[in-house]
Structures are given as structure tokens and as C-alpha cells.
Amino acid sequence: MSLVSYEFAAFCIALLVVYYLVPGRHQWLILLAASCLFYACGGPVYLLYPLVTTVTTWFLAGRIGRITEKSKAYIKEQNMDREAKKAYNRQIKKRQRRLMVLGLVFNFGILAVLKYTNFVLANVETLFHMAGMEGEMEYADWLLPLGISYYTFQSMGYLIDVYHRKYEPERSPARLALFVSYFPQMTAGPISRFDRLKEELFSEHPFSAAQLKLGAERILWGYFKKLVIADRIGPAASVITASPELYGGPYVLFGMVGHVVELYADFSGGIDIVLGVSQMFGIRLPENFERPFFSKNLAEFWRRWHMSLMQWFREYIFYPVSTSHASRRLSGFCGRVFGKGAANRAPVYLASVTVWLVTGIWHGASWEFVLWGLANCAVLLASQELSGVYRACRKRFAFMNRPGYRYFEAVRTFFVFCILQMFAYYPFPLVFVMMGSMLTGGLIGPAIAADGAAAVGSVAGSGGFFGTLCGPIGLSTADLAVLGFACALMLAVEICGRSVNVREKIGKKPVLIQYLLFFGLFLLVLTTGVYGYGYDVSQFIYNRF
Amino acid sequence: MEELYEILEDIIPDEDYRNSTTLVDDGALTSFELVRLVTQICDTFDVEIPSEKIVPEYFNSAAGMYRLIESLEGEE
Fold it and tell me: Does the distance separating the beta carbons of A314 and B39 come in below 8 Å?
């Protein structure tokens, strides 16, 4: 069931009615039933996947919790001194670690098999062909269960937290099942932590017209980003990036920027819908974006983009890897061979490369995404290495501390991200060719120059300079005008959002103005959104994980 | 506290780590140094620092770090 569908709207309305009619203490059960129903819409067999994850996580976390309880009671009973307590705790931790690792291997194993089998097979096939062996591999045609990455990461985060004794394990498998499968976040995240989400999920939520209104506003804003911006600019950008031989020069720039605008409008729009739906049920989910395009560097950008995933990587991969025994041994070795600087760097380099390899492969099972991850890692590490130079420059040059420079930094970060994204959709060597084409290429690609007249005619209303230029990629002058207005509106809201909460500010205006703004946005989506009979709303990009 | 100063002297010898309260905010402790610092604190004091405790609140000053170490030792 797509977030942009009449079925989803009807599902939510019916659910809201039931949710607010039942006694508050049973509301979570309604959400659990709804989540199962939502998931079963793709086929009842797909319910098995989150069910298996829930059962294994519940069982193993429960076992780890019981070992903790027993060990605490034993220590108290034996009245151990500090050293004996430490030795005993180490033994207990070892037992618990085995259970945690079992859960991680099993659940990430399911994810890896479903998501990466074909990638591995394709590489094996290539190797066979390179060795001169004939034959074709038989590829798996499994469908990836909806949101498998999100619920796997979320439940494994829970298992690790229980192992680290951050909180008690959940006794009820049904309550854990709701945490794993809460339907709004199954589509695009965010990845929540159990100790924070459980308060929201299992509390009573009396009906609140204000929450309903705020939720509806956020959903509408999400639809605006998805239908008016992402689904309009996305296909045009894809035409360019899919045919690098046809589109050079300024088209590369348009494709590069368009792709990033689509990615942001699509993903953050999806998250707006998810958070808005959840808010209607009185449940607040963590934010996933914090105006990332206002970041002063790439490191800050990645702290403000897909925040819940990056936080997960930081907490469960970066710090554990950088402080692991292997990392310490590597640091010691580098210190002995290359000196103190290398000893300092080794753990961070090892952890950063690990995180970005995982980030890359998480975003897509292809070498392009692996390279995209490593390219991000290289820029981040270079930026880290140069941090001393930046600090010295800031002290030396006063203009670098002025507000105007802040805007330059934001624009620079935007283009650094745009360029790095090219690694995700162009094959590796081609990235540099296309960058060259962007900087030196002519106004339009040679093939377009030849076929331009015919192609231009294919899009209604594609007259004028911009229409002629954008006709071949499926955008009319009207489309360009809508895109320009919509992007400016999105930017204006983001700028306002730096100092005030825009929805709360609108909420303080007279009711008439509030409804006029709401209705205006609704009309905007209705009249300029890309949808309708015969048009298939494209899937959210981040639904694929 | 002296053991902690020794670690800090080893990692950031040029910084005023005894008095500074902005070691992370000012960039004296970047992730390079922070990871090394955490590792050495864990080894020296025999504690485990959970990742959610690796935040400026604790690592901006030597006093904050010591407070964290004491709280972790108390949890053992």
C-alpha cells in the first residue's frame, strides 16, 4: 500500500475512527492489528519476515535480560569485592555476547541474503566470464519485504542496547512486535530507539483536534514535496543521468542538481507523511532531517540528513569499531611503524571506512554505491585532516567569520553532495568525464542537437528558450515555472524553519488565515501535483530499503 | 585525576586541557583524538564507555571526563 494512494487514505481514516473509539489502554493493540494488516497487503507471506525478527529478538533479548538479573542477584548474594565482581561480570558478558551475536548474524543474515544474493551472483558470474568460463547464473527473484532494513536495524539496535544494559528487555512479545512493525515507519523509517518510542506507543492518547490538524498539515506538506517537486523533476533528471552519451554540458548540471532535489523532496516528503500520520495518532516519531542544505560542511550535512540511520551507524558501528580490540591493535602497530600521528588516525580511518562501506552497500547493492560511500568517506577524512588549516584560516581571515561566508559554505556543501551523488548513478570513470563535460561542454549534447527539433515537439507547451532546452527531457515551460515556484516555496519554509517552528507559527494566526493557507496548499497539490488517471505515482526512493 | 591528565598530555600536549571547558567545541578534540582518548581511558580505568556518553557534555573538559569515569566505575 503506497503512502500516496486512496487506499492508504481510507485505511488511515478508518483506523483513526477505531483508534479513538477504543479505550486508551487498548490503542496500542489496534495499532498492532493495523500494522499487521498494512504489512499483509503486500501478501500474507511477507508478515513472516517481521514476525521472525520479532520472535528471535524478543527471545534473545529476554535471555540476555534474565542473565543480567540473575548475575546481579548472585553478586549481591556473594558480597564480592571489586576485582571478583569484574571477573564475574566479564564471564557473564561473554555469555550474553554470544546470544547478541547470534541475533545479529541471524537477522542481518536474512537481510543480506534477500538484498545482496543477486549482487554476489552477478560478481561471481563476471569472475567466471573473466576466467573464460561460459554459462549464465540463475538469479533469485525474491521480492524484498517492505521496510526490511528499517525494522531489522531498529530491532538489532534494541538487542544491542539490552546487551549494553541501557534498558530492560520488553517482556511482552506483542508489544515488541508493535515496536518492530509500527506501520508508518515501515515505509521509510525513521529508525527509532525502544526506550524513546515505547513511551509514545504504549501511552494512552486521548483525541486531540490540534494533533489531528498538525498531522494533516504535515502530510499535505509531504504530498506537496513528493507530487509537485520530486515526481516532476525526478523523471527529467533520470532521462539525463540514464543517457550520459546524449546529455552533456548544462544538462549534466541540471541532472546533478535535479537528482538531489528529487532525492530530498521525495525522502523528506515521505518522512513528513510518516511523521504526520503518526502525529494524528498522538505518536511522535524522531525527526529524520534538520535542514541539511544549510550545513557548513559534509560532516555536518550527514548529521542532519537521514539522521536516525546515521545515528545508528555512529552508535552501533563507528564507536564500537573505533574502540575495538582490533582497532587498538592496528593503532599500536601503526604507532610503532609510522609514529604517533598514524596511531591516532588508524582507529578513526578503520571505523570511517567500515561505516561508509556499510552506508554505501545499504543504499544499493552495486559497486557504484560502494564507491559512492568511499567517496563520501574520503571527503570527510580529508576535511577532518584539514580542520587545523580551516581553524588557522578563520583566525587569519576575518571575512570567514562573517554571515555571508556561512551562505557560501552552505552552497559549497550542497554542490559537494551533488557531485558525490554522481558516483551513485554514473559508472566510476564516467563521473569524471561528466564533470569535465559539465565544466567545458557546449550548450546541448551533440545527439540532442541533431534530434532536438523532433524531441522538442514531443512535449506540449515546450516553447521558448527554457522549453526548447528542457523539452527533450520531458519538461514543458509550465513544468519549469511550477518547479521554480515550488522549490522557492520549499526553500523559504526551510529558511523560516531555522528560527521558528513554521507549523506552530501558522497555528497562532487567525483561523481563517490558517484554513486559507491549508486550502491553498491543497489546491496547489491538486492542480500542480503529478498524478491522475493513467499516471502511476512513482514509488518513494527510500521504500526500496 | 593525575592519570587522566597523563593521558590528555599524551594526546593533546599543546592544549590547556586542565582549564579548558570547550575541548570538543573548539576542535581541540576531533574524532581522531576522541577515539584515542576513549580507548586509553577504557584501558587505564578498566571501564566501558557507551557510545551515547561520547558527547561534548563529558568531553569538553577534564572535569567532565573524570565525572564520567567516576559514574562508570560506580556502575560496575
Answer: no
Q: Give the separation between CA A303 and CA A314, rounded to whole angstroms.
A: 10
Q: How many Å apart are CA B17 and CA B15, to the nearest integer?
A: 5
A3, A273 in Cβ contact below 8 A?
Answer: yes
- For the question of whether the overall pTM of this predicted structure is more than 0.80, the answer is yes
On chain B, the residues whose CB falls within 8 A of the CB of A323 are 35, 38-39, 42, 49
Q: Report domain extents, chain A.
A: 32-187, 214-285+443-545, 288-437
For residues A532 and A529, give the distance between their C-alpha atoms in angstroms, rounded to a whole number.
9
B39: nearest CA partner in chain A? A323
Q: What domains can be seen in chain B, in order of their start residue?
A: 2-75 (1.10.1200.10)
Residues A209 and A16: their CA atoms lie apart, in Å, by 12
* pLDDT tens-digit readout, A132-174: 887 777 888 877 788 888 999 999 999 999 998 888 999 999 9
Rounded Cα distance, A374 and A80, in Å? 49
Cα nearest neighbour of A165 on chain B: B50
List chain B residues with CB under 8 Å of A327.
Answer: 39
Nearest by CB to A323, which of B27, B30, B38?
A: B38
ipTM above 0.90, yes or no: no
DSSP secondary structure string for all residues of A62-113: HHHHHHHHHHHHHHHHHT--HHHHHHHHHHHHHHHHHHHHHHHHHHHHHHHH
Cis peptide preceding A190, ω within 30 of 0:
yes
Test B35 with A82 for CB contact under 8 angstroms. Answer: no
- Using DSSP, state whether B28 is helix, strand or coil: coil
Rounded to whole angstroms, how far apart are CA atoms A342 and A79?
A: 45
Spatial distance between the Cα atoms of B30 and B12, rounded to a whole number of angstroms:
10
